[in-house]
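Hey Z.,

So I finally got round to the MGD thing we talked about over coffee. Here's the setup:
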Amino acid sequence: MDTAVASPATTTPSDDVRTVRGACPHDCPDTCALVTTVKDGVAIKLQGNPEHPHTAGVLCTKVSRYIERNNHAGRLLQPMRRSGPKGSGQFEPVSWDEALDDIAARLKALACINPETIVPYSYAGTMGLVQGESMDRRFFHKLGASLLDRTICSTAGGEAFGFTLGGKVGMRVEFFGEAKLILIWGSNSIASNLHFWRHAQAAKRAGARLVCIDPRKTETADKCDEHVALLPGTDAALALALMHELIVHDWLDHDYIAQQTVGWEQLRERAMQWPPSRAAQVCGIPESQIVELARAYGTTKPAAIRLNYGMQRVHGGGNAARAVACLPALTGAWRHRAGGVLLSTSGLYPVDRAALQRPDLLAGRTPRTINMVTIGDALLDTANPIKAVVVYNSNPVAVAPDSGKVVQGFAREDLFTVVLEQFQTDTADYADYLLPATTQLEHWDIHYSYGHTDVMLNTPAIAPRSLARSNTWVFRELARRMGFTEPCFSDNDETLVADAFQAGSIDYEDLRANGFTRLNLPDAPFAQGNFPTPSGKCEFYSQRLAAMGQDGLPDHVPNHEPAGSSVAYPLAMISPPARNFLNSSFVNVTSLRDIEGEPLLEIHEEDAAVRGILSGQVVRVFNERGEHRCRVEVSRRARPGVVNGLGIWWRKLGLDGSNVNQLTSQRLTDIGRGPTFYDCLVQVEAVAEGAGEGRA
Ligand SMILES: Nc1nc2c(c(=O)[nH]1)N[C@H]1C(S)=C(S)[C@@H](COP(=O)(O)OP(=O)(O)OC[C@H]3O[C@@H](n4cnc5c(=O)[nH]c(N)nc54)[C@H](O)[C@@H]3O)O[C@H]1N2
Ligand SMILES: Nc1nc2c(c(=O)[nH]1)N[C@H]1C(S)=C(S)[C@@H](COP(=O)(O)OP(=O)(O)OC[C@H]3O[C@@H](n4cnc5c(=O)[nH]c(N)nc54)[C@H](O)[C@@H]3O)O[C@H]1N2
Ligand code: SF4
Ligand SMILES: [Mo]
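And the result:
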C-alpha cells in the first residue's frame, strides 16, 4: 500500500485532545478560519476561529456540519473501477497501484498520438491553491493536455472589472460597517456571504440604509430597507439610469471625474440615453423607484456597493458589471474607505501562479482551450474529439448548463473518465476510475479569499480516512508513472504552501502562528486614483475593449432569452443556490437536505393562478432543451414573470433524476466567456397527481 499521505499536525498519543487551525475550503467569499478539536486522532468538533476578525467564531450552517460530511457513510474510501455499463455507478474495488498504473498507461497511449485529446475538468470544490491549482496544473502542462478555460462562475464580472478598474479589486469588507448607504446588488448575502452581512448589519444599526437589487425577494431582501425586484439581466439599464439622474441633478464629483477617469464625455452621452422612464420599462420596476434610488446614491456619503456574481450570469453580465463599476467614480465615493464597490478581492493577492502551476512545462506548445461552460458540446464534438477527461474539485454533470448534453457526453462509451472525489456524485457515476479524495481536515492547503483580504493556512487535523488521498498525491504518483522527472513533481504539500505567494509578499511566520495573516493594503485604495488599469484611471471607456471590436462603453445588452420574448416559454427562470447547499456540495448531507426538502420552484401567485398551479404540487418545468420536475411553491419570493428554481441538486437525489441545469443553456456572456444560467426561458405546468414522482 502506498503510504505517502499528508501528516497530521502532530503525533497523537492516546487521549490527547488538541485543536488544529484550518480554513474553510469552499467556494464562498468568506473563507472562514476553522478550529478543529481532535481526540485520539478523530475530529470531534469544528468551529469558527474566534480570533480571526472576519470569521468572529461563526460558521454557516453548512460547514458547521463538516464533520458529518467528513464521516459520512458515503465517503469514498477506496479506489474503484467501473464494473457496470457507463453511468450505472457500479464499481469494483481496486488497489491504488492497479488504478494508477492503468490510468497512466491509458493517458500515455493517448498522449503519444495527441495529448490534446486529454482534458482536465476542475473548479472550486476546494479553493485551496495547493489542492486546487498546483500539482494538477503541472501534470497537465507537462502532458500538453488541452487547457481548460475556468469560466463557470466569475469571469464575466471579473473581466469586466478588469477593463474598468483594472482587476478584481475594490473596497475592504470591514469598512462596509461605516457606510451610510449600501446597495446589495445581485447578492443574497445572508445565504452566500454571511460574514459580509455582519458588517451590513453594523452599518444599519448605525443608521445606514440597505437596498437589495435582486429579481428574487431573498431572505436578504426581507431584511433590507428596500427591495428593487428588477427583471433578470437588466442591471446595466438600471445603472445607466442612475447615472442619468446623477448627471441631471449634478450629484457628481467633477474633480474626481476629471482627475481619475477616462471617457467621461462618452459615458455622459450614453447615460443621457437612459432616462428612468426607459429603464423602468426594461427593468420591469416603477420609474419612481429608480429616481429615489438615484437620489439616495447621489446624496448619501459614504455609499458602498456590494456587487456579487448573481447579476452577471446573463448575456449582458459583463456590461452590467462594467456599468455598476463606473458608479463610485462618478460620485467620488472612492475618496472614503467606506465608499466604492466590492465584487471580489481576489486580485489583491500576490499569488505566485507561475511557481505553483508551472506553465513553462508547456515548453512552447499551445494546446487548444476548452471552455468548461460548454463541456456538453465539447464532449459531443466529433471533429476534435475529447478522448479522456480527468475530473477533480467539480461535479459537471450537475453544475454545467444544458445537462442533457453533458450527460450524453459523459455517457460516451469511448470516453475514458477519471474522477477524483470525496463522494459518488452524479459525475462520479460516469467514471471509469473513481479515486477517493481527502477532505480539508485531511490535507494541507493555503488560501486567498474573494471576500476579505487575509491569507489563510489549512493544517491537516487528522489522517486521511482509509485509502483517501489528496489531489496532489494522485498527480505526483501519476507524474512518476508517466516518467516525468522534473524535480517540481516531487514537491511535497508543505513546499507548495511555502511557494504559493510571491517571495516576501506575505508574513509566513504570522500565518503559521495564527492560521491567518493580513495583506498589507491601504484603507481607501483608489482615493487618489491609482487604478491598476493601463491608464491608472477608472476606464469608463475601455480602449482595450474597443480594440477587440467591442463597445468601449457599458450598455444594456439584452438577454439571449429576454423575458416576454417567447409565447411558448413565457417565464424567465433564475436558479440561485439553495441556502443550505454550496453549489452541489452538501446535497448528500442528510441533515442539510432535510432542511431544503425537495428541489423547489418558486412562482408568483399571478403566474400560478393562470396555470392552475397550487403550492406543494409537482410541476413540469420545460423548454426546448429539456424538462425537469420539482415541487412548486406559490411564493412572495418570486416576482411576476420570473420563477426561481433553487439549485444545485444532485440529479439522482431529485424527483425525476434531473436538476435545473436540464433547462439552462450553453450560451455565453458578452465579456469573459461565462455561463448564462440566469438567462433562461421556460414554461411551467402542473403534473397530474402521482405522475413522475418516483425518485430516479
Ligand atoms: N449557501 C451558499 N453560499 C454560496 C454558494 C452556494 O451555492 N450556497 N455558492 C458560492 C459561489 S460558487 C458563488 S459564485 C457565490 C454566489 O453568490 P452570489 O454572487 O451572491 O450569486 P448568486 O447566488 O448566483 O446570486 C445572488 C443573487 O442574485 C440574484 N440574481 C439573479 N439574477 C440576477 C440579475 O439579473 N440581476 C440581479 N441584480 N440579481 C440577480 C439571485 O436571485 C440571487 O439572490 O456564493 C457562494 N456562496
Ligand atoms: N443552475 C445553476 N448552475 C450553477 C450555478 C447556479 O447558480 N445555477 N452556479 C455556478 C457556479 S457559481 C459555480 S462556482 C459552479 C460550481 O460548480 P463546482 O465547482 O463543480 O462545485 P460543486 O458542485 O460544489 O462540486 C465540487 C466537488 O468537488 C468535490 N471536492 C471538494 N474538495 C475536494 C478535494 O479536495 N479533492 C477532490 N478531488 N474533490 C473535492 C466535492 O465533493 C464536490 O463534489 O456551479 C455553477 N452552476
Ligand atoms: S462556506 Fe463560507 S460562510 Fe460557510 S464556513 Fe465556509 S467560508 Fe464560512
Ligand atoms: Mo461560483
